[in-house]
From TrEMBL:
The keyword Membrane applies. CDD domains: TM_PBP1_transp_AraH_like. The lineage of its organism: Bacteria, Pseudomonadati, Pseudomonadota, Alphaproteobacteria, Hyphomicrobiales. This is Autoinducer 2 import system permease protein LsrC. Keywords: Cell inner membrane, Cell membrane, Membrane, Transmembrane, Transmembrane helix, Transport. Its main location: membrane. The keyword Cell inner membrane applies. It is a multi-pass membrane protein.
Length: 331
């Protein structure tokens, strides 16, 4: 009985080891940040850091859903940009108009993700090729909506989602936690979620077992588009404007890949969780905060982030190369 229980705990730890490591890395980096910040550990400092990290966390969750199926979404950042531009047009006016605008933006994100999934599944194209092509389409649509930065957003709604609850806890982290509970947890525990993991681990065996692989992948890509759109909404809430920024879209896509690797998600698929990806995003975003608090030249920030990106992907690749059989992950 004791051996069985110990084996279960060991299996559970192996499944979540990447999440624990990402959480520990974030805790250390954030502790260094607040201990050296002129204002110290205050609600305002935590709120500012949380609001900046939430954007990347949503895109990292989106990337995670696709990566566990052994795919990749290089359009995630452009869906965020498109959603930002769309929100700057629609999330305005009366409460009813604003609510319809939010629904339209999230619906557009769902549609973008579903388009990716349909092309990959039924068009039988590689995810990397498909999402490169669709990212150009999504950016083109964003550019049509906002050839120049502009627009606005319902400031009352934006304040609700970016302020502090009870003057202490960042609202953005509450929304992030609610998203994990309402999107990730049901998906990961569903038949489609298990099939998504199976597709990333051993797709041929999963197919022979009769698992709904096509529907699982389509669900993963669709939810990925939804989460990227939530990131675009938050970008609008923070900036009060819309902008078709090509560099920003590409940056969020690349950083989301680094975040999922830092969070223990295997780029080969079949292993990891969105919670780990969120902690990976928080840790990765802390790099910029550390550069700020130590007053380093902002021109150095892309260099340090690029180094972390290379190290993150390198560590993931080394770990994958050492595995002869994916069952070794859980032994």
């Amino acid at each position: 009985m004791t051996t069985a229980t110990g084996g279960e705990w060991r299996f559970w730890y192996e499944l979540n080891r990447g999440t624990f490591l990402a959480a520990a890395l974030f805790a250390v980096m954030f502790a260094i940040y607040v201990s050296n910040h002129p204002a110290g550990f205050t609600p305002n400092v935590v709120q500012t850091a949380a609001n900046k990290a939430t954007l990347l966390a949503f895109v990292a969750m989106a990337q995670c859903l696709v990566v566990i199926t052994a795919g990749i979404d290089l359009s995630a950042g452009m869906i965020l940009v498109l959603s930002n531009c769309l929100a700057s047009w629609l999330v305005v006016g009366t409460p009813l108009q604003t609510s319809l605008g939010v629904a339209a933006v999230l619906g557009a994100g769902l549609g973008c993700g579903m388009l990716n999934g349909l092309i990959i599944i039924f068009g039988r194209l590689q995810p990397i090729v498909t999402t490169i092509a669709t990212s150009a389409i999504f950016f083109g649509l964003a550019l049509l909506l906002r050839p120049m930065p502009g627009g606005s957003v319902n400031e009352s709604l934006a304040d609700v989602f970016t302020s502090k609850l009870f003057g202490i806890f960042p609202s953005s982290l509450v929304v992030l936690a609610a998203t994990i509970l309402l999107v990730w947890v049901p998906f990961s525990r569903s038949v489609y979620g298990r099939a998504a993991y199976a597709a990333g681990s051993a797709e041929s065996a999963a197919y022979m077992s009769g698992m709904p692989l096509k529907r699982a992948k389509l669900t993963a890509y669709t939810l990925s588009g939804l989460l990227s759109a939530m990131g675009g909404l938050y970008l609008t809430f923070f900036s009060y404007t819309g902008e078709a920024a090509f560099a920003s879209g590409n940056a969020y896509t690349l950083y989301s890949i680094a975040a999922v690797v830092l969070g223990g998600v295997s780029l080969a698929g079949g292993k990891g969780s969105a919670i780990g990806a969120v902690f990976g995003a928080l840790a990765f975003r802390s790099i910029g905060d550390l550069l700020f608090v130590f007053d380093l030249d902002p021109l150095w920030q892309p260099l340090f982030q690029g180094i972390v990106l290379m190290l993150a992907i390198g560590v993931g690749s080394i770990g994958l190369a050492r595995v002869r059989n994916r069952l070794e992950w859980f032994q």
